[in-house]
Amino acid sequence: MEQRQLTYKIASEPEEMEQIHKLNYETFVEEIPQHQQNEERRLIDKFDGENVYIIAKDAEEVIGMIALRVNRPFSLDQKLEGLDRYLPKGAKPCEVRLLSVKGKYRKSQVFYQLVNVLVGYCLESDFNLALISGTDRQIKLYKRIGFEPFGAMVGTAEALFQPMYLTKEKFETSTKAFSKTIPKDMRSKPINFLPGPVAVHKEVKEAFGKTSISHRSDDFIEEMKSVRRRLCELVNANHAQIVVGTGTLANDLVAAQMKKLPGKGLILANGEFGYRLIDHAARLGLQYETLQKPWNGNISLKEIEDFIAMNKEITWIWTVHCETSTGFLYDLDSLAALAKSYQLKLCVDACSSVGIVPVDLSGVYLASTVSGKGLGSYPGLAIVFHQEPVMPDGAIPRYLDLGQYAIADSVPYTHSSNLVFALHEALKRVALENKKLLGQSVKNILTRAGYPVLGDAAYSPGVLTVPLPDSISSKKLGDALKKKGMIISYESDYLLDRNWVQFALMGDIALPEFEAAFAVFERTIQRKAELV
């Protein structure tokens, strides 16, 4: 079978649910004769409305699934009397049902990865044990993953099932055994955990490789309109302008517009990129106050409101959404509500959040993002969202004048059709739920192995920051990993100064790639003498 990159997610789309019903039929009617046949060849589970479906997809095809249910009585309660007496003390169980993988994928890692995502989801939901009724045809496989049998077999002669459970500890043991099969390094295919440039999907690469076309052609203008429309739909914005440049340029464009606003602004800063906003404002001569905290310090909504209440001249707020230097994620919805209640203009640097977490800009005056981070494309396009129409202003340098782009459909000057083609393709692949699941799984793997990650569940799943002990040099570790084909974020001065490393999960990264990389990470750290 051709090796393709699979994705793992919680099913959310109608087409995914339809494929689940068909896979359910194929497995539990045609393969395991547990239910009656029907002409539609669809089997909708009796607990369908309560199930959470974790699925594996090959492109758009659902090729594996696990259904998770948390409400009791479980189906196993009805099959095995006194279920709780079989479970370990302190068990907080959920029930796993309908485990199924299409035939040609059964000798791959799909089943293992589905269980890996399942364990991460259970831990995040405060469950510590997963129950299954495992078909007697696959008991060896379940045991290899870490499931333990208990009680008597249940079911019928045609379809026998063994009650089993999986604990976090057992799964960790199987993970270590599994990691021994991973290649020692990845020189043939470097794995990229940078916040930019990010790993891009092969179809994004193909789109970038199309023959260039004139930025004045009708085809390009239509392509640009389509991309801008998709961007607006993604974040609930009225307008989006696309400029050849970086996130720094996008923030300068925002600052140039903010300079036209009356009164003074308030800039929030608790990390590298918040402090950079202060620098943007100073260079463009904006009038502003600051609310600053040490790196990774929490700036509460109450502190912001108290500051505004004491400074009546404040008319706008500027903040990052995700502070890339730490992963800290501001509560954008609450900030927007606060700004609305005080009739302030809220402006946001969303360079590291769009494409990673849900971003609603309906209450945001101006916002910036880029092509080469969470959107999963190549660097080189700066994006500015605005809710109100913008007109050109002769007092602003031409390239920083957002109005020049607004009246010219984002094409006042030379543009790159290749970058726009690539961004268009990448936008089709934005999957926020996948990013959330991946971030949860990666964080669980790191913390279970003893590597602390900054922040809590409210931090971005796209940037995981790991402080290293003084006995390990972040530079030497990063250099050593790079030689082995694993590229983590460590070379920025702000990371080197604090001896931090980061796993950025913004690009085209799947859980199996992280697991392969993590095995290399652990082996490298074990050679501490080389990393001091």
Automatic annotation (TrEMBL):
Query: Annotated Gene Ontology MF terms?
Result: transaminase activity
Cofactor field: pyridoxal 5'-phosphate
Top-level taxon of the source organism: Bacteria
The record's annotation in InterPro entries points to: Acyl_CoA_acyltransferase (IPR016181), Aminotrans_V_dom (IPR000192), FeeM_cat (IPR054597), GNAT_dom (IPR000182), PyrdxlP-dep_Trfase (IPR015424), PyrdxlP-dep_Trfase_major (IPR015421), PyrdxlP-dep_Trfase_small (IPR015422)
Q: Does the keyword Transferase apply?
A: yes
Q: Which intervals hold domain N-acetyltransferase?
A: 6-169
Q: Mention any Pfam family matching this sequence.
A: FeeM
What is the name of this protein?
Aminotransferase class V-fold PLP-dependent enzyme
PROSITE patterns tied to this protein: GNAT (PS51186)
Which controlled-vocabulary keywords does the entry list? Answer: Aminotransferase, Pyridoxal phosphate, Transferase
Gene source species: Metaplanococcus flavidus
Quick check: keyword DNA-binding in the entry? Answer: no
